[in-house]
Amino acid sequence: MRIPVSWLVQQLELTEDHRGITATEIAEAFIRVGLEVEEVSPLGPVSGPVVVGRVAQIEELTGFKKPIRFCTVEIGESDNDSADAADSAAEGPETTQIVCGATNFVEGDLVVVALPGAVLPGDFTISERKTYGRVSRGMICSAAELGLGDDHAGILVLPVEDDIAPGDDAADLLGLTDTVIELSLTPDRGYCLSMRGLARELACALDVGFIDPAAIEVPAADAASVPVTLADPTACSRFAVRRVTGVDPTAPTPWHIRRTLMLAGIRSISLAVDITNFVMLELGQPMHAFDTARVRGGLTVRRARAGEKLTTLDDAERALDPDDVVITDDSGPISLAGVMGGASTEVRSDSTDILLEAAIWDPATIARAVRRHKLPSEAARRYERVVDPALPPVALERAARLLREYGEGSIQPGRTDVGTPTAPDPVVMAMDLPDRVAGARYARGVTAARLQQIGCRVEVGAAEDGTPVVTAYPPSWRGDLGQPADLVEEVLRLQGYETIPLELPTAPAGTGLTAAQRRRRRVSRTLAEHGYVEVLPFPFVSAGVWDAFGLSADDVRRRTLPVRNPLEAERDQLATTLLPGLLDILVRNGSRGARDLALFHIGQVVLPRADAPPVPDVPVTGRPDDEQLARLAAALPAQPVHVAVVLAGNRQRPGWWGAGEQAGWADAVQAARVVAEAAGVELTVSADALAPWHPGRCARLSVGGFPVGHAGELHPNVVEALGLPKRTCAMELDLDLLPLRELRPVPKVSPYPPVLLDVALVVPDEVPAAEVTDTLRDGGGELLEELSLFDVFTGAQVGEGKRSLAYSLRFRAPDRTLTVEEATAARDAAVSAAAEQHGAALRG
Predict the structure, then answer these.
(1) The model's pTM
(2) What tens digit of pLDDT does each residue of 684-701 get?
(3) CA atoms lying within 13 Å on the CB side of residue 453
(4) Under 8 Å CB-to-CB from 255, ≥6 apart: which residues?
(5) Which of the following CATH numbers is that of domain 515-616+629-737: 3.30.70.100, 2.30.30.100, 3.30.930.10, 1.20.58.340?
(6) How far is the C-alpha of 570 from the C-alpha of 582, rounded, in Å?
(7) 427-494 belongs to which CATH class?
(8) pLDDT over 70 (residue 81)
């Protein structure tokens, strides 16, 4: 919201202490009451001779690629006392000649002229210069060149008014000494999207009086100006129209209104439209102006019907959705309610009969329409944040009077006003609740005074136990005040957050992190130490990702929980696996030039239960009881913590030390082993086939015989569908399924030397290497300290359908020097176990 300081202070009853208040002080006052100030922008600076000029003559210069005009401009009356004037044969207005490339003005228009010696914003100095074969003595200025806005489309043409004449100081007329304050407003502060709301907040911050521009006399709606039917009261709680006839279509918009719109970033269009926008900025009530002559019959507010279309004011034909709310006449839809009017009934250059409309629309419906049609507007921005339901008749009266004043219109008797908006419910609060929440003692009467400042009607009484209470009746524009906590917030922010004592409460004695939290940190730290980078992927997925993953129609991972109001329309489901988000980040990094990637994430997934009961409506007025908490827990989906990694490119980079090594399925499996080691559990790896992994390069990860995850190389079809680097690998396991091992045994280090032996076993191809490894470990007994597979060989030497597995075995005794004979016996026992269980034979 952009608003000039000069307009703000007009609505305040400033005391002597605040007469010379600066824009910086106003910005600080806004911050004190909880509003975020984005920018404080002084206009200008402009110095030197900048005056009002009247275009007396225009000569069109030809022979150039763009339109060029040589203009004679009156800049005031001649100084007849000067010697030059005495010698002059002609008396009259003083003129100057200027070369200009704009074409949006005609002879007789009033413009702003910067004469030689003037300095415009950006330190742009005006001087006399020769251009296009003529001498230009000054510049005719646009609004952007004067720092009034961003409109470079043409010259700033001033309205012809009695108090504006050639030669007047344009800096004073344009208010170039003013300052614009821009605020970023949270959705709950919709009432601040107006001068009225911001001036009230400023009055509270400065503890001065406030002049409410909405405090005008509004005649009763004793007769309907146009018949209106509310077919959907849920979408529109109030709809009001008022008719003004005989409006002069050529009447210009007054300068003070044009200037206000310009500084707020709104383009001036016509008197009727500008007045509706001005009232919206002033009061916060969006309005729309119809050309009454183009409206066919009465108006109806309803939902759109299938197949209906509407051409909006931007000349775009839009297919309407049954969720859209529209205003219709006998010809069909004429306005997309709360968003943008229709082209068929817009106010045009010959419109004299104006029908003003102000309504209260359902915020959620407007928000959906804006996103559906990609059509944000200033009106919709306010409707999304709730508009004061008492404003429509006031805004209509204000706009109608402005049309009568500046457009010579005639306000027709009567006003259509249908719908009955509900007033906010009263809120009862203990008088000392703000003191107790803040931990401070405020002066007597502060609570009631602050609530009255924001517009509440206050009654002070006592509860049944004699405790003093205050009953606040929120004003119509503060529908967000619904519970005592809301009133406490208002009292504290207006008193000033700096009044709350800065005392750190004593933390209760505790046991620190839970065992699961310690394990999670251990796993995260260990993966980072092994070269993985932690990322935070988007927690929502689209339904199409499961097709890209190649999941079957009955795959449990397709059973997702939809998001009611998704941040992105396509990603409207909570993830049942961490892989989609991780792979999305992998693709994004790859598109930015990263090639060798090893990423990990530890987070929750959401697994809905097929037979889960509906979520109960738990009250927020107090702590839920045990039964309510139990029903709530039963309705919530399972949310286990998973850990996942993805790899692409080289796991070891090439260089002078070697050719490097491409990341493969074994690296994904090793990442799982790293996680298991950090968690203090032993992981069993076996072959499996599960999408989205490659069937021949997929490993099932198990603990104690129970599967906890999978690892391996992704299927080529998945890689192609998602645009992933070739041979991308991934691992994901359920961290919550791993048993918690808090009392991990202290490793025993033997001071005696080891005995190193190798063995190569020939086994059938169908025997998994992991099973052979387990058998050798069991058969080797307590002396076998370490066992690792270092080679796999297939070929004619070992026979068809067989392969050779070469192992390195390390034997060591904890209490003595192990002999070669003892180590050999232990090795032979391990080989015998493998031969018995898997048909393994020593390779000759």
Answers:
(1) 0.68
(2) 888 899 999 999 899 999
(3) 25
(4) 158, 159, 161, 164, 173
(5) 3.30.930.10
(6) 17
(7) alpha beta
(8) no
